TrEMBL record:
The lineage of its organism: Bacteria, Pseudomonadati, Bacteroidota, Flavobacteriia, Flavobacteriales. Its main location: membrane. It comes from Winogradskyella vincentii. It holds the Pfam family OSCP. It is found in: Cell membrane; Membrane. Keywords: ATP synthesis, Cell membrane, CF(1), Hydrogen ion transport, Ion transport, Membrane, Transport. This protein is part of the stalk that links CF(0) to CF(1). It either transmits conformational changes from CF(0) to CF(1) or is implicated in proton conduction. F(1)F(0) ATP synthase produces ATP from ADP in the presence of a proton or sodium gradient. F-type ATPases consist of two structural domains, F(1) containing the extramembraneous catalytic core and F(0) containing the membrane proton channel, linked together by a central stalk and a peripheral stalk. During catalysis, ATP synthesis in the catalytic domain of F(1) is coupled via a rotary mechanism of the central stalk subunits to proton translocation. This is ATP synthase subunit delta. Belongs to the ATPase delta chain family. Coiled coil: none annotated. It is a peripheral membrane protein.
Amino acid sequence: MAGSRAAIRYAKAVLSLASDNKVADKVNADMKQIASAIASNSDLSAMLQSPVVRSSDKLSVLKAVYGDANNATTNLINTLITNKRIALLGDVANKYNHLYDALRDTQVAKVTTATPLTKDLEKKVLAKVKELTGKSTEIINTVDESILGGFVLRVGDLQYDASIANKLNKLKREFTLN
């Protein structure tokens, strides 16, 4: 819990600094890249979490990977290294993305489908989500063939499951209860 509070504080500080310097969107792109890299690369995540790896080595790796990042992002990495909090980098990046979206009054909708979304269907989903929530939305499409058809829409903490697999499971439960 203390790590999460610290990550929020660092994210708020970076967002404030980036907003003042009018580079919040560039830093947001950096933070998305960092969060994605740490989430998808277990070696990078383990290296950042490891107390055995020296801070100077962690800094060298991060500079090699994110050397072209914005100054605010580079300063965040240096501050986290100095304060021995570099293990929080992934959390800080995620918190920054959430705070940035809240500041811009946008949200991320995750749509899981059996096949990739077409541009036309994506526009319809965006329009429907905007109608329901009143906020502009960015869509992340995940393909999962196990849902067979239909879609699963997640916006914030709301979920709408219109998948064929879900409907089949409901029918199965109805038949086994009777």
